[in-house]
Amino acid sequence: MAKENLECSFCGRKKPETNLLIAGLDAHICDRCIEQAHGIVAEESKQSKTNDLSSELILKKPKEIKGFLDTFIIGQERTKKVMSVAVYNHYKRLLQSSSNDDDVEIQKSNIIMVGQTGTGKTLMAKTIARMLNVPLAIVDATVLTEAGYVGEDVESILTRLLQAADYNLEKTERGIVFIDEIDKIARKSDNPSITRDVSGEGVQQGLLKLLEGTTVNVPPKGGRKHPDQKFIEVNTENILFIAGGAFDGIERAISKRLNLQSIGYSATKAEENLDEANILQYIIPKDLKDFGLIPEIIGRLPVLTHMNPLDEKTLRAILTEPKNAIIKQYEKLFAMDGITFSITDQALDYIVKKAIEYKLGARGLRSLCEAIFTDAMFEMPTSGEKEFKVSKPYAESKLNYETIKKLKAVS
């Protein structure tokens, strides 16, 4: 074939119409067809990897999971152990061979975490999802209502997970859902009423099948279901559900139960062994039932753990020790403007003391830091100064009474 008559064997373009024409044994291919073929191969390769659970899921042993959590979360040793084991067992269940001949079927190990606000419940779920490389949806139970009422249906939880997985069904069906504020859907009263408890027990009833495992028709864009709408079928059998809530006031139920058990001569001895500063550590499923969760939903959240309240030592460590500690973040922010940032131990202790005094929790640490550093972050990028050292008197001058009162109101 004459050189000027050469053409691409795939698209038929003549050689002058191409930038590059590569010759094979009995055929030729142009640069455009090569680019197109490369895109097809890359997409197919990506799809095959997505469909293979073991290729994307990064599953580590419980001690390795806890070690990863330790780099981001201070304290909460018991909860980190419980979470590590539950997550490991759940994803080990997913990875077990489908050709297994024995009749033993491993059940899901959904988790419920009880702890005061700001103790790290959401952070725990986020960190585990990051480590496993699976999609995570964080939903607020307070907006959920029974089907047919104003508010969001229970199925909207799965819409959020679909969106987090970029509408990839395979990834969605092995993701993690964190249901926050689960205590807000507690049964309002044990007494029967003529009115429906549409945002309490009604929501709990709606969650039952979701937690246990069922196929749900999910509207991909959320909102109300209607007959002409297209649905995506999502199987929740392999989705790990983690529920969290403050359960404000549950300590009274725990104390009452512990006191009732302490009868006779052993009463004094039993009371001496109780840690009254952290009564939450003695929580059992019965306390959740007394608070207002129905027995069926407690049974579908078999792993119960608690978050310890944050003391001064823990809050101090949260400021400086984790991989993404608050002070490290400010150091990086100032460094991006060429400013060397430092803070004295006395100033750090003062911030922690104020967070404890006004019960602002771990979230309050960031708010207090913002209140102290905002003026400097506003002025220094244009002032030409290259060093910013925060002392206790400087922190005290920025944290006046009115500022702290506003922060307390926000928290």
Tell me what the structure shows:
- With 411 residues, the chain is of the alpha/beta class.
- It folds into 3 domains: 3-51, no CATH class; 58-93 and 106-306, P-loop containing nucleotide triphosphate hydrolases (Rossmann fold, 3-Layer(aba) Sandwich); 312-410, Orthogonal Bundle (Helicase, Ruva Protein, domain 3).
- It has 18 helices and 11 strands.
- The strands form 4 sheets. The chain has a 5-stranded parallel sheet, with helices on both faces.
- A hairpin with a 4-residue loop joins strand 1 and strand 2 (28-30).
- Helix 9 crosses helix 11 (285-291), helix 15 packs across helix 16 and helix 15 packs parallel to helix 17.
- The longest helix is centred in the C-terminal third of the chain and has 23 residues, at 361-383.
Write a concise keyword list for the protein shown above.
alpha/beta, Rossmann fold, 5-stranded parallel beta sheet, globular
